[in-house]
Write a structure and sequence with these properties.
2 domains, single chain, binds adenosine-5'-triphosphate, Rossmann fold
Length: 368
């Protein structure tokens, strides 16, 4: 299992080649009259985070991001989770320089975005990044087709090509037949599908979603999450997904970064965050999340003995949640052989391990 505070390791349960797409180092964002001076104060001292925050506030400065570092790997869904005001939106805006960081580095592949000209950044935002926001951000006077084609129009794509591409995207998000509807004729979920289609039209290398489903009611929200996962299976985008909803984070993430008061306090796979929260604050978030639903067979399996006879045991895919194995475990299956696509058997999961994971779940609930 990876180190829970290690923001640099890629921890998906696959052996696919790891390529870092986005690299952020030591990002600070301080609002106020003299952010550079405030930053020097922050870097010069060794105060606890909350003391520093208060001291900067005394001089009229607001510490929105403090020393944020992480990598996002190609094809990964990286979820940033935190309560309102923890700095999530500021962070995602710093990545595209819609908000200018006070200090730090943002690398997109080999390009240092903080050194890029404003002209280059406009190009990056238009051609490389896709963005979806909570309030959909559709143009009310344009129909669905023209909304989706809009970023392609901004790129100067000829009308026939952009219409064809927009139609493909509309089909992809399941809105075929609604091309000529106006945004206000659509439900919230449908409007957000248009937002998603529009952001995908430019075929972005990096996809930022800032609370995209937060305005939707719970049932639609869940449907949209499923839809989002389906699209990601198909498209394999590199994604930074912002949410304040821990259940959503756990459902969608390959890895989660938990933010508090402008800092990332833990980065890890959902299972890592559940099993080894760095502190009581993180643990309190995860109280409502079921370990059995989140922990996968691959994340807690034991090593396969060298002399293992492949014909023994029931084969189960590494991505299977423990919960799905419970009925068979209770019915007497002692050992599951964990497999990964293209690799065959990679480990073993015993009923004993399953029981330990579930005991941890119970213990957490009893302690608090
Ligand atoms: N221009 C600004 N000047 C001063 N403070 C700001 C500015 N913009 C944001 N902040 C502050 O920075 C903090 C982080 O805001 P941010 O919107 O990034 O949080 P968030 O985690 O996305 O919250 P929410 O989920 O409510 O959107 C907030 O306390 C906010 O008031």
């Amino acid at each position: 299992m990876m180190n829970p505070v290690d923001g640099t390791g890629f921890s998906r349960e696959s052996t696919a080649e790891v390529v870092t797409k986005l690299r952020c180092r030591n990002i600070w964002k301080i609002y106020g009259q003299r952010p550079d001076k405030a930053l020097a104060t922050a870097l010069g001292g060794s105060e606890p985070p909350l003391t520093l925050k208060r001291r900067l506030e005394e001089t009229g400065h607001f510490l929105a991001l403090a020393d944020v570092s992480f990598d996002v790997q190609q094809g990964e869904i990286f979820v940033v989770m935190g309560l309102s005001g923890s700095g999530k939106s500021t962070l995602v805006r710093c990545l595209s320089r819609l908000v200018e960081p006070t200090s730090g580095e943002v690398w997109l592949g080999g390009e240092n975005l903080l050194a890029a000209s404003e002209r280059r950044m406009v190009e990056v935002r238009r051609k490389v990044m896709g963005m979806v926001f909570q309030n959909f951000g559709l143009l009310p006077h344009l129909d669905v087709l023209d909304n989706v084609a809009f970023p392609l129009r901004m790129q100067g794509m000829p009308p026939a090509d952009r219409t064809a591409k927009a139609r493909d995207m509309i089909e992809l998000v399941g809105l075929r037949g609604r091309e000529n509807s106006m945004p206000l004729e659509l439900s919230g979920g449908q409007q957000q599908r248009v937002g998603i289609a529009r952001s995908l039209a430019v075929d972005p290398e990096l996809w930022f979603l800032d609370e995209p489903f937060s305005a939707l009611d719970p049932l639609i929200r869940r449907q949209m999450q499923d839809e989002f996962l389906r699209l990601q299976q198909l498209l394999q985008k590199t994604i930074v997904f912002i949410t304040h909803d821990i259940q959503e984070a756990f459902r969608l993430a390959d890895r989660i970064a938990i933010m508090r008061e402008g800092r990332i306090i833990q980065i890890g796979r959902p299972a890592d965050i559940l099993l080894t929260p760095v502190d009581a604050y993180v643990a309190s978030f995860t109280e409502e999340v079921s370990l059995a639903k989140v922990v996968t067979a691959g994340s807690v399996m034991a090593k396969l003995p060298g002399n293992w006879d492949a014909s023994r045991g029931h084969e189960v895919d590494a991505a299977t949640p423990i919960e799905m194995l419970l009925p068979r475990s209770l019915a007497g299956t002692q050992t599951f052989v964990i497999t990964r696509e293209g690799e065959g058997p990679v480990g073993l999961l015993t009923s004993e391990i399953i029981a330990k994971v579930l005991a941890n779940d119970t213990a957490q609930r009893v302690v608090r």
